[in-house]
Amino acid sequence: MNMSTNDLIANLSDDLPPVKRLPHPAKRLAMWVVVALPVSCLMGALVEQQYLALALERLTEARSVLELVAILATALTAGYAALCGTQPGRAPNAWMLPIIPFIAWLAMVGESCFSLFQQIGPDQFSFAPHWTCYPSVVATGAAPALIMVILLKRGMLATPTITVGMAVLAASALGAVGLRLFHPPDATPLLLMWQLIATLTLYGATSLGSVFRDHWAS
Amino acid sequence: MCLPPLFRSRARLGYKAFQLFLKRAILRPKQIKTFLEEPLAAMNEKPDNTEQDRQWSAWMAAAQDGDRTAYQNLLQAVLPLIRTIVSKKIQDPDKAEDILQEVLISVHKNRHTYDPELPIKPWLATIAQRRTIDALRKIYRRGEREALVDEYPETFMADDTNKSPEDDLVFAMGDELKRALDSLPAGQRTAVELLKLHEMSLNEASEASGMSVAALKVAMHRALKSLRTQMVPKSEL
To answer: Which of B78, B178, B76 minimizes the C-alpha distance to B123?
Structure first.
């Protein structure tokens, strides 16, 4: 740059319209949940053609409720961490919050897979994707992901890798809530597994994307 | 398995932070909130800086509402802090100054992300560190692709293609100028070569050529007039 730092400061000060402060991450998280969760559930109900009452009947078992709580806790904590990541200097250690609920969620998915494996045996057990389930996965996951991206764009990605990773995890988890309610439960462990794989793939893709973006920018 | 050093150091840091998090979560649950919102270690508030922090926060809050004077005061005041953070990683003063300016632009673009209830130094330090790391990445990547050389490598076998640019009048000035110079009388050509191409002073050129200073001035004046006439595009004549 040829401009002196003092000239730059003078120029920046000259162009100073008032700005709207970014709300607290907790407030933005509440907004995300309030908007994205009903849309996700509605889309899940439309794609699966089910009523909410019928979906809630599935939650009679304590285990199902526990699983839903773990998924919701993962979504909330990861969402909070992602939104903290868009405000430089705010809660730099918030990325640790979703670790415990995410491990709990993974443990339950693993346990469900193991039970299913024991029930149906190795010949019937398959990790192959159930393509017919993908419309539900996309329908329930789209709104949380889209709204999260909009919220992230309002801030500054001070730690892009962690923030994007947390955002992907949060969006997947909130989408999984809708999926857990409206999708047939027999396939849930496999679906969740594929959703996690999709999350990790997205995470890798976004990291690669940021690497390529930096490369091109330089 | 051989992992990149940056990845290893980050993983080690993350593991230590998580250990600390678990220890505090189990032993002192009330401290979790403090731990999560703890500012970066390097920017922990010192008692004598509190007043300064308050002043900077107040200026930033005013700047968010459009107060230009407060904003100018703030940017001037934070320069030493940003310069310290940048120069820890960038040794070249010119590059450090460029990155400092990028940090200021980033602060300007992201001023809406500052919450006046939080201390301002961690906010500034995070932006400065982020931009410095981005700049370092660019420098490393450029270093992987480009190399500074003292001499240009050979391109073709023929001698004409491997002359240094300084020796090669055609390369330095173009065919047209060379032709125009060749067409000048010897005295005028000598004046142009010594005074303009070799950048000698009038006295040095006088010593080198044996021409008087006055003769050199006259020859230079005439040479420039002649070159101007020859090199003006025909359409402008």
So the answer is: B78
pLDDT of residue A145: 86
Each residue's pLDDT tens digit, B176-225: 777 888 888 888 888 888 888 888 888 888 888 888 888 888 888 888 88
- Residue A18 forms contact with B (CB below 8 Å): yes
What pLDDT is attached to residue B59? 93
Q: How far apart are the first and last CA of chain A?
A: 15
**Helix, strand, coil proportions of chain B in percent (round to 5)?**
75, 0, 25
Q: How far apart are CA B53 and CA A55, in angstroms?
A: 53
**Least confident window among A133-137, A163-167, B136-140:** A133-137
> Alpha helices of A85-159 — where are they, by DSSP H?
99-124, 134-153
Of A90, A31, A28, A75, which Cα lies nearest the Cα of A175? A75
Q: Please give the share of chain A, as a percent, with pLDDT higher than 90.
A: 20
What is the H or E stretch that residue A160 is in? Answer: helix A160-182
Report how many Cβ contacts below 8 Å link chain A to chain B: 116
Check CB contact under 8 Å for A87 and B66. no
Q: Which residue of A has its CA nearest to B21?
A: A96
Contact: A89, B141; criterion CB under 8 Å:
no
Cα–Cα distance measured from residue A4 to residue A148, given in angstroms and rounded to the nearest whole number? 39
* pLDDT of the residue at A130: 64
Residue B55 near residue B37 (C-beta atoms within 8 A): no
Based on the number of CB atoms within 10 Å of its own CB, is B118 exposed (0-12), middle (13-18) or buried (19 or more)? middle
Angstrom distance (rounded) from CA B233 to CA B237: 7
Query: What are the tens digits of pLDDT across the range B16-75?
Result: 777 766 666 655 555 555 555 554 444 444 444 688 888 999 999 999 998 999 999 999
Average pLDDT over every residue of A131-160: 82
| Residue A97 contacts B where some CB pair is shorter than 8 Å | yes
CB nearest B100 (choices: A5, A20, A92): A5
CB contact under 8 A, B75 and A12: yes
- Chain B residue at shortest CA distance from A19: B64
Residue with tokens 């309610």: A181
Tell me if B104 and A99 make a contact (CB, 8 A cut-off): no
The per-residue pLDDT for A83 is 93
Tell me the C-alpha to C-alpha distance, in Å, between residue A161 and each of A86, A153, A210, B135.
12, 14, 8, 17
